[in-house]
Structure to design on (855 residues):
């Protein structure tokens, strides 16, 4: 691990990777690569399935570890570098007498390796690349076999987040193999940039995760790290020493952080240090309110004596620059009772604001104190100032835009010096609470420039990004490794910048990923942040008082009707546990919408984001998506049998589409969740439909071979396998042979070999209860730009543009798979697939020209 940089102290030392030695055999890697296991009696690793390997007796495991290290660590190093490696060069003896692996020279060796490759001619380079790709691919699959069992996979599916390496190999060995694979893959891609090798995610290291938990990381933060960082960056982050007490996060889940939520009833503003008991300073709320009433911005600074605050009213049009403060309320810089803070805090803020305004030079004389704006001090609190408070909140968009700089204050950064390396600063800053709150996202999105306050100055991550990106691929590997750590750790910030760079009208397309991993204490404020970020007029949202009953639902409804357009994919942003809420009248037509946008999306941002927007109105969200309509209607669902799967007891059904002989569709659902009661009560008035997020009906085995993307719009030229005459002839012969055998009363050989490659595609989907839209006068208003798209409706009136009303019953996943052979009837194949007597149903495909009003 020593080739990975360490953060500066306080930081943890590298994890020691022991040299595993066998009593019986000093495994020393020798070429050729592929026959090495067989030459040492380990050829079974390559042929045995993972679960069997995990029955390997405990007593022999140290021997296995020694072999695996010689093979997948030293062997891979030698094969990759193309030069015989002296094991002793990679091994040192610690003070305690342990023999451990030392990789300090790895980056230097990679530099030399690159120089050698550059001297080869084109064909030789291709040969080298093919060789190392084979070794890296083999290493990855062999390590997966040795560190994964079915139980791991089940756990991953159930928990929804990664599980750890199995215990067949020691944790240190697993980690060292992941880190080596990650490092070599990076080097390989730098030297051969034309054909990128996909880099695995490596999220299974127990050592890294345990250390992060000990350092006080929230489990949701670890999930986020897994999503954004490879093992090298994750390992670097785990060396960052303690962030805070782990107990704060005892109530958090893998997806949601519940720490840092503010409870108004027992919130207390904090002093700079706990022993201080200085006076509070602030301004009378009435004076602030006066400024707001005349449409000015109330900024502040310390008065001449430095003991109180003075007001600096800024006209919206005058070009006076001021600094706006962005902070996390849980740090203690808020106040629900008055527009005041402890004097020690105000003085510190003033010093920091002055430093920013004077670009880091020494603080000026008190008379030169620079004006600043801070919500705690400048938004009127208390009853009697509701109107001014609302105006001030509505003005936040202007305030953050007008401010020269937004200064982020976060207690977690108070002891960090600006002199740390860019990659360390990136890793530390982006892991703070500030990146987990919704209000702060909104402030940064509105700001022109955001800087983070550290112990001895402030840092602009955008500037650091520029520095790091100056290192191009010709830089030394040590620098490239640091660049990777910086860029991966910086993801939360980069995502924020990307969102900010979009125009107001297009931001809504990315709303789901922008708010991912963030939370807010008061859900009724959520829509305020959204409206400000999307450039909407806040007045109708603020017209719903936060003290009204169901204020958050009413405000959400107002926001949705105000914003009007949302990504079509919004209706799939749910999981099994959603939709259990009772349907209140306030929400009719809005059941598709989240009560909250935060913490809905768990997946990383898709490569091809869903950019199609759909109109939302009082009736619902009007989408145009592909759907599967089961021929037998609700009976398919109500008569389905239960099936135990890795995610628990689920019902399942199988479908085929007419003329699509090679493929079938599987859908599984949970009767105990979702709104099956609704489906039952609407049975006679509705029909079931499976609305698909992506049109997987267009994905075929051949399309995958051709590298065509999922969701291709034009599926007219779909071809099927086994169209060739020769194969068809063979198939006919086989069927005839079986028929003859059956006729003679002989047993038909059931054990035929699947002739096809494995194939599967899946998509998120919803099961809906659909019906023809009620003909109400309002309907005409809802058809706008999409009117030219004629649905292919059922029945004789197929030329009439019909929209179907659809109520979500459950979020599901629909899978498309291939039959193993075409020589059997579909229902027989299904028996083999499923091991039970499930029948296969037929379904009709409705194209994406059909419109659905999702309620
Ligand atoms: Zn947490
Ligand atoms: Zn104080």
């Amino acid at each position: 691990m020593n080739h990975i940089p360490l953060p500066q102290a306080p930081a943890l030392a590298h994890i020691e990777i022991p040299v595993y030695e066998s009593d019986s055999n000093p495994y020393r890697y020798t070429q050729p690569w592929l026959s090495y296991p067989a030459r040492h009696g380990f050829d079974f690793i390559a042929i045995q399935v993972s679960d069997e390997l995990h029955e390997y007796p405990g007593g022999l495991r140290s021997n296995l570890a020694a072999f695996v290290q010689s093979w997948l660590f030293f062997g891979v190093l030698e094969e990759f570098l193309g030069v015989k490696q002296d094991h002793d060069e990679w091994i040192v003896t610690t003070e305690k007498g342990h023999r451990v692996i030392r990789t300090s020279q790895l980056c230097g060796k990679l530099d030399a390796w690159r120089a050698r490759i550059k001297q080869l001619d084109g064909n030789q380079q291709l040969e080298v690349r093919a060789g190392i790709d084979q070794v890296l691919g083999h290493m990855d699959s062999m390590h997966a076999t040795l560190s994964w069992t079915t139980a791991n996979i089940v756990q991953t599916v159930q928990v929804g987040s990664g599980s750890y390496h199995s215990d067949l190999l020691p944790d240190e060995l697993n980690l060292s193999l992941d880190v080596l694979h990650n490092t070599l893959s990076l080097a390989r891609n730098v030297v051969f940039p034309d054909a990128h090798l996909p880099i695995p995610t490596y999220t299974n290291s127990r050592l890294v995760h345990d250390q992060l938990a000990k350092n006080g990381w929230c489990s949701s933060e670890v999930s986020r790290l897994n999503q954004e960082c490879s093992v090298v960056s994750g390992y670097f982050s785990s060396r960052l020493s303690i962030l805070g007490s782990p107990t704060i996060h005892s109530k958090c889940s893998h997806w949601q952080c519940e720490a840092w939520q503010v409870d108004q009833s027992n919130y207390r503003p904090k002093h700079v240090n706990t022993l201080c008991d200085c006076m509070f300073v602030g301004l009378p709320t009435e004076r602030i309110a006066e400024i707001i009433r005349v449409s000015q911005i109330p900024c502040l600074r310390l008065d001449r004596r430095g003991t109180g605050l003075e007001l600096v009213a800024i006209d919206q049009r005058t070009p006076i620059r001021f600094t706006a403060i962005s902070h996390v309320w849980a740090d203690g810089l808020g106040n629900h009772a008055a527009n005041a803070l402890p004097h020690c805090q105000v003085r510190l803020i003033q010093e920091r604001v002055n430093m920013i305004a004077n670009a880091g030079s020494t603080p000026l004389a008190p008379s030169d104190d620079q004006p600043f704006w801070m919500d705690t001090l400048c938004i009127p609190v208390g009853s009697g100032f509701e109107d001014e408070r609302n105006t001030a909140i509505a003005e936040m968009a202007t305030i953050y835009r007008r401010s020269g700089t937004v200064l982020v204050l976060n207690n977690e950064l108070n002891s960090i010096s600006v002199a740390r390396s860019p990659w360390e600063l990136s890793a530390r800053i982006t892991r703070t609470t500030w990146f987990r709150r919704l209000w702060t996202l909104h402030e940064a999105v509105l700001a022109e420039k955001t800087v983070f306050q550290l112990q001895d100055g402030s840092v602009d991550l955008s500037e650091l990004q520029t520095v790091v990106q100056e290192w191009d691929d010709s830089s030394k590997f040590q620098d490239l490794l640091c660049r990777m750590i910086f860029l991966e750790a910086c993801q939360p910030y980069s995502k924020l910048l990307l969102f900010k760079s979009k125009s107001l009208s297009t931001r809504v397309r990315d709303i789901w990923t922008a708010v991912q991993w963030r939370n807010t204490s008061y859900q009724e404020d959520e829509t305020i942040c959204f409206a400000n970020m999307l450039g909407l007029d806040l007045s109708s949202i603020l017209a719903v008082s936060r003290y009204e009953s169901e204020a958050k639902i009413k405000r959400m409804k107002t926001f949705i009707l105000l914003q009007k357009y949302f990504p079509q994919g919004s209706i799939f942003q749910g999981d099994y546990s959603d939709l259990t809420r009772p349907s209140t009248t306030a929400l009719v037509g809005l059941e598709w919408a989240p009560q909250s946008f935060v913490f809905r999306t768990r997946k990383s941002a898709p490569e091809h984001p869903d950019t199609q927007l759909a109109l939302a109105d009082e009736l619902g969200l009007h989408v145009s998506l592909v759907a599967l309509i089961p021929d037998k209607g609700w009976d398919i669902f109500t008569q389905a049998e239960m099936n135990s799967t890795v995610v628990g007891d689920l019902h399942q059904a199988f479908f085929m589409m007419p003329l699509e002989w090679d493929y079938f569709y599987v859908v599984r659902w949970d009767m105990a969740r979702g709104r099956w009661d609704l489906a039952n009560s609407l049975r006679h008035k509705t029909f079931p439909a499976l609305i698909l997020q992506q049109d997987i009906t267009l994905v075929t085995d051949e399309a995958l071979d051709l590298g065509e993307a999922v969701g291709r719009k034009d599926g007219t030229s779909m071809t099927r396998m086994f169209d060739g005459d020769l194969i068809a002839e063979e198939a006919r012969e086989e069927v005839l042979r079986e028929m003859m055998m059956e006729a003679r009363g002989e047993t038909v050989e059931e054990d035929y070999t699947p002739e096809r490659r494995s194939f599967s595609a899946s998509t998120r989907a919803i099961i809906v209860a659909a019906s023809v839209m009620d003909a109400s006068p309002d309907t005409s208003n809802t058809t706008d730009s999409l009117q030219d798209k004629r649905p292919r409706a059922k029945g004789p009136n197929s030329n009439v543009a019909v929209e179907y009303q659809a109520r979500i019953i459950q979020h599901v996943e629909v899978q498309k798979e291939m039959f193993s052979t075409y020589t059997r009837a579909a229902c027989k194949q299904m028996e083999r697939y499923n091991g039970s007597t499930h029948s296969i149903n037929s379904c009709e495909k409705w194209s994406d020209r059909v419109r659905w009003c999702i309620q």
Q: What stands out?
A: The longest strand covers residues 803-818. Residues 271-272, 276, 278, 342-344 surround zinc ion (ligand 2) (CB under 6 Å).
